[in-house]
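Thanks for the sequence, V.! I ran LLM class flavin-dependent oxidoreductase right away. Repeating your input here for the record:
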Amino acid sequence: MTAQRQLHLAAFGALGGNHTASWRHPATASAQVLTAAYFKEFARLAERGLFDLIFFPDVLAVAQDRNDVGFQQISSNIPFRAEPISTLALIAGVTEHIGLVGTVSTAHTQPFNVARTFAWLDHLSNGRMGWNIVTTASEAESRNFGVSLAAHEARYARAEEYVDVVRKLWDSWQDDAIIDDKAGARYVDASRVRAIHHHGKYFDVEGPLNVPRPPQGHPVLFQAGASDIGRSFAAQTADAVFFAAQTAAEAKRIGADIKRLAQTHGRSPDHVRLLPGVLVIVAETETQALEKQAALGQLIDRQAGLAFLYELIGVDLSAWPLDGPFPTLDPASIPGIKSRYELLHDMAKREGMNLGQVIERVASAAGHRVVVGDPQQVADQLLEWFDAGLVDGYAIMWPHLPGGLEDFVNLVVPALQKRGVYRTAYAGDTLRAHLALPTLASPI
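Predicted structure:
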């Protein structure tokens, strides 16, 4: 008898929540987001909910105003994010099972450092690490490193070589290189360690890595590219893909394209997990859930929403009338996330939304799907796409923290477990095991 397919869930690590107005919610621990206690509580809650992983996004700049010349808008939201690596190291020590995924940009780092960091953390966490690969689409971030934002295609070309180098470094040690032979005075068998001699367009790296091969072989790779070139990179590189989709048709189109591209890159599409983002607002009754949603909506600052839209797509829409249509622009002229602009444009056209209404939706979940209801209704909506085979799970986003996560764990998780689609205990020890992905054997 074939085992029932299991839903995979990632807990989005946000400061206060993922709604623009999350920090203003009276239940949000916004005063605690710079404390270790805040992240320890979040991690323990997520592990109690048996999530596959915790995921921390990152941006290497203070959130700036829509004109990108000052800081007027930073007062209307939490303008920074958790530094992922130190945060994951912290919570690795207070958890035992849950996967730990952090964002690191290929634009402003070097592959040797990233390979070393994730390999070391994979050892310290007993095989629970994952790397969310981003190429950085922000001029503000680039200026913090004294460079100009590279062209879209060039960012992905660099990222492709970057990941190749990181993988070579992880594979520069064989799995059995450590022999710990005290009598023979040999800790490492040197014949099982080799240089990589990488000489490419962007990087020259001799190797080997100065950390033994990670327990998972390779930490799990995540990616969120949704443009044409981004999907190709994700399909070639990632074990799991984050993306935004408002409708089942969008989820089907994006997922099918990623699976198709994975095959063209010689990969099994069964080894790529599809995890769209979804903001969940749940309560014991539908009425209470809708009241929660309405209360958050009343806390939205329109200018903060407009600034967030600018942060996403890199285009200042402040001169456009809020009661007018969402503007039609040439995607090639979008310096930010092109796929997010296209998603918002399609949503506005499909639902007859004006610019002001799009801003409110962006403020709610950055263009991601929003699911509202009682536990059974939320489970129904999540399983609709899952049961249809469109997705493997979700990156769950929060109306406020820690309460939004606690509501999900207490209300939605039991509803999913009763339907037999969600674990009742962790069956494996590594992030690859949680996601039903193979551990990669040493190639040398």
